[in-house]
Automatic annotation (TrEMBL):
Database matches in SUPFAM superfamilies: (Trans)glycosidases
One Pfam assignment: NAGidase
Biological processes annotated in GO: carbohydrate derivative metabolic process
Signal peptide segment: 1-35
Gene Ontology MF term list: hexosaminidase activity
Catalytic residues identified in the record: 328
Signal found in the keyword field: yes
Species this chain originates from: Sphingobacterium phlebotomi
InterPro entries found in the cross-reference section: GH (IPR017853), Glycosyl_Hydrolase_84 (IPR051822), O-GlcNAcase_cat (IPR011496)
Name under which the protein is recorded: GH84 domain-containing protein
Signal listed as a keyword: yes
Domain GH84: 206-482
Keywords: Glycosidase, Hydrolase, Signal
Family that this chain belongs to: Belongs to the glycosyl hydrolase 84 family.
Length: 592
């Protein structure tokens, strides 16, 4: 008879207890909406027919603009009710963008079955998603067909311009119901560990995917980078790009115009050598207009020379790949001037190294067209298409800044920008937030490599050891997208970090708690801490402190096992977990 490891058995009991508590509490206390409809279910409005586009990390959104836009100022949803709630409430999740008017001037009307339910200030947050509730008077709802109309009452404005009111979801139900989308398969990640560790297929025998496969280290130190490069080779990656944040003392001033410290340069020269040793192309990148007290003047020869000193240094080291990044900037947004500037760098690089390749990260870099002051996004992209040297690659992050990456959007973006694309995949990046994204790569189409030449993941900040687990799945996908299996991949990723079953089970438990933002398809955000999210979901239940305490104790057990089974390892990762444990303890202590 096989005896289960005692520690793992205890952990299993906690999961079972937790599951039973959630199930019982859900059966007794939770209220589901009687009817739920997404923004895309509304007819009219300004975004009808654009349900697959992400707006501010949300999909299926609709919006109403000013009255003078006509049909775009109102949207209508019809829904059926088989029963009428005894204490009916309408809830809506939305946001506003006020533009240049006070938030108090952005007014809406809500009409239900021909009756005015509400007229007044929208109540939604400016530039952030929030929820608003309306009591429904007796007799307004009816069995069968019902009709809800949302109107923007601001008189003056243009379609696609603020002030607008966006709606992602609405629902009708009993007074205390929770408004949420129907459960999707991504919300419950359960990993069955494989019995044996399998070697990854070599690129020679199975390369049916991207030509370039790699990652960038988000603000990684040289020491982090040196440690991680051999792992990238193990994961069949052949490309590594430094994060431009790594080129200065982030989060301090980006002094791109100054010579780099000699000892710092020596470390990066070691990185270049190590990449070559591991058959990895090193890509040198900087962004001179981000986090800086001195924005670059594209027309200044001095500014160009000041930036060029760094690229010249790398070109003389026989580095073949370079990137100029102008993403997330608020100054220097003219596409034509940007293109001329980048072209001049490309010409300089070619004179030193005829094999040099350049990737440009444009200011508009996703299909959601999020920008930082660009007035006409499509015009910007078409200007880049016409004026950027045709041999220069462009980065693209996907359907949105984070979230899904689809072939349809890749094709659309490539046609507009007119250049070869390399995917800059913002996963498992945490942008230095108190979060870890450990789950497998998902929501990437299997034929993207037919349109894009490269796939570059983006890493977590200090948690670079845990970062190896999702990065394994990124490499697995990039090598052979058509045969990529997320659950199989993450199981193998865990085994490849461990020496025995006990260690594998501990890392499996970590991943199931910190499964990552890609599994919350209603809202993709890199600051989502899934451990805290799960804890808060439990606390929100009636008597939720009981299962929440079990959840916290289970996380404490995971923290302890990491220390016992991996001595000297996962220091930054354990510090992240410990911070979460203390956060949970504080909330349990104040529970009433």
């Amino acid at each position: 008879m096989k005896i289960m490891n005692k520690t793992r058995y205890t952990s299993k009991l906690r999961y079972v207890s937790l599951y039973l508590l959630i199930s019982m509490a859900g059966a007794v206390y939770s209220q589901e909406a009687t009817a739920v409809f997404l923004g895309k279910d509304f007819v009219g409005g300004g975004l009808e027919g654009k349900s697959e586009v992400y707006y501010y990390e949300r999909k299926g959104v609709n919006a109403v603009y000013a009255v003078e836009t006509g049909t775009k100022s109102a949207m209508t949803a019809q829904f059926d009710l088989s029963e009428i709630p005894s204490n009916p409430v309408l809830k809506m999740q939305g946001r506003i963008d006020i533009g240049h008017v006070p938030a108090s001037d952005v007014k809406i009307s809500v009409i239900l079955n021909g009756r005015s339910l509400y007229t007044g200030e929208s109540g939604f947050h400016n530039r952030d998603w929030s929820e608003k509730s309306f009591d429904i008077p007796f007799g307004v709802l009816q069995k069968g067909k019902n009709e809800l109309i949302i109107r923007n009452l601001v008189e003056k404005g243009s379609a696609g311009k603020p002030p607008w009111v966006m709606l992602v979801m609405a629902g009708v139900g009993e007074g205390d119901f929770r408004l949420k989308e129907p459960t999707n398969i991504f919300q419950h990640l359960s990993i069955n560990l494989p019995e044996t560790k399998e070697a990854m297929k070599s690129p020679d025998s199975a390369n049916k995917g991207f030509t370039l496969r790699g990652t960038k280290g988000w603000a990684w130190t040289p020491e982090q980078t040196i440690t991680e490069i051999p792992y990238l080779k193990q994961y069949n990656m052949n490309f590594f790009m430094n994060c431009y944040l790594s080129m200065f003392d982030y989060p301090n001033d980006n002094q791109w115009w100054k010579p780099l410290d000699a000892s710092f340069k020596k470390k990066y020269e070691e990185i270049v050598r190590l990449c070559k040793k591991n058959d990895i192309e090193f890509c040198f990148a900087m962004n001179p207009n981000l986090y800086t007290s001195r924005h670059i003047d594209y027309s200044s020869k001095k500014d160009m020379d000041d930036l060029w000193q760094h690229y010249e240094w790398m070109a003389k080291l026989e580095v073949n790949w370079f990137s100029i990044c102008l993403d997330d900037i608020t100054t220097g947004l003219d596409a034509g001037v940007q293109a001329k500037f980048v072209n001049s760098f490309y010409q300089r690089l070619k004179k030193i190294n005829p094999h040099a390749q350049l990737i440009f990260c444009p200011t508009i870099y996703s299909s959601s067209y999020n920008s930082h002051g660009v007035n006409d996004n499509e015009k910007y992209l078409r200007t880049i298409a016409g004026e950027l040297h045709p041999e220069i690659y462009c980065f693209w992050t996907g359907d949105g800044i984070v979230g899904a990456v689809s072939t349809a959007k890749a094709k659309e973006f490539k046609e507009i920008i007119g250049h070869r694309l390399i995917i800059w995949d913002n996963y498992p990046v945490n942008d230095a937030y108190q979060a870890m994204h450990m789950g497998p790569l998902v929501l990437r189409d299997k034929d993207l490599h037919e349109l894009c030449d490269g796939y570059i993941a983006n890493a977590m900040y200090t948690q670079s050891e845990f970062n190896r687990i999702p990065t394994y799945s990124c490499g697995d996908y990039a090598l052979n997208p058509a045969e990529y299996d997320p659950l199989k991949s993450i199981g193998q990723a865990i085994l490849h970090q461990t020496d025995n079953r006990e260690q594998a089970e501990t890392l499996r438990d970590v991943v199931e708690v910190y499964y990552g933002f890609l599994f919350h398809t209603d809202r993709f955000r890199t600051n989502l801490n899934t451990a805290r999210f799960s804890f808060q979901e439990l606390m929100a239940m009636k008597q939720g402190n009981v299962p929440a305490k079990l959840f916290k104790e289970n996380l404490q057990d995971i923290y302890n096992r990491l220390g016992e089974q991996f001595p000297g390892r996962y220091q930054a990762e354990r510090a992240t977990i410990l911070t979460d444990i203390k956060w949970m303890e504080e909330r349990l202590a104040t529970f009433k």
